[in-house]
Amino acid sequence: MKAIICNDFAPLEQLEYGDMPDPEAKGSEVVIKVEAAGVNYPDGLLVQGLYQSRPERPFVPGMEAAGVVETVGPDVKGLKVGDRVATICQLGGYAEKVVADEGRVFPIGDMDGGDACALMVAYGTSHHALKQRADLKAGETLVVLGGAGATGVAAIQIGKIMGARVIAVCSSDEKRAIALKAGADEAIGYENLKDQLKEMTGGKGVDVVYDVVGGEAFDACSRSMARNGRLLIIGFASGTIPKFPVNLALVKEYAVVGVFWGNFTRAEPEVYADNMKELIGWYQSGKVKPVVEGRYPLAEAAEVLKRVLGRGATGKLVLEP
């Protein structure tokens, strides 16, 4: 099969589009013929050796994929050949075929493959962050940094479902328009962010911040929190991991909360499965709608990853074998 191969941790240009052995379904595994593979920010870090995990090389990146079940292992009970499914596979998604354990595979019926990929990581991350980590309440103010990205759009839509007032923060007029279309109540830029948030909350501060950016935006938000607020740490798309003055948490009485969705899916598989069922239900009822900005040939993975890492993407980007 054709796949994107990481032979060693190196710049994105060194990713290879080449041949790998077809995967085999063993035990409770299924092999999926991939229709769409979602592109995520951590994928670009992983292949450069900049992520929390460092898999043995060579490997095929890609943590989410959607397609059709091609073969099933002898212990598979709930899936059959021909089912359309999506999976969180951790590795292997950037290929014509991927193998995944049945417990991490979800039926998608006639759902668009790109939409299904977006629901896996982008919506899965935002859902876990706002539901389990922030315990977001109706009537609270939610600030979403990177509001036009795939996870940002997801956080906006989920925040509105949960009854929050949502303020999106985006770097351009074009991106702010995307955030507003996704359902944000207001969309602002990063300039004078602390002062803007103070004014918009009447001096009270922000109840929940969804931060995938880090850097100066984190610094501004850390000084804009309401009492009993929750500052969610999801990622550092700015490239700068900020330092936090812990006295702010003391005097303002708010919490800084880490969100590592991949760890959550492994540590609490039953809760994770319930989350995915809820998300798929929201999609089927029209409550959430991923923004799939572009679909690209699998061979162009390196260029697509460059765009994601450069914060040039709006919505979800998808690779199609």
Automatic annotation (TrEMBL):
InterPro entries: ADH-like_C (IPR013149), ADH-like_N (IPR013154), ER (IPR020843), GroES-like_sf (IPR011032), NAD(P)-bd_dom_sf (IPR036291), Zn-ADH-like_protein (IPR051397). CDD domains: QOR1 (cd08241). Gene3D superfamilies: Medium-chain alcohol dehydrogenases, catalytic domain, NAD(P)-binding Rossmann-like Domain. Residues 10-319 form the Enoyl reductase (ER) domain. It comes from the Bacteria. GO terms for molecular function: oxidoreductase activity. Pfam families: ADH_N, ADH_zinc_N. This is Zinc-binding dehydrogenase.
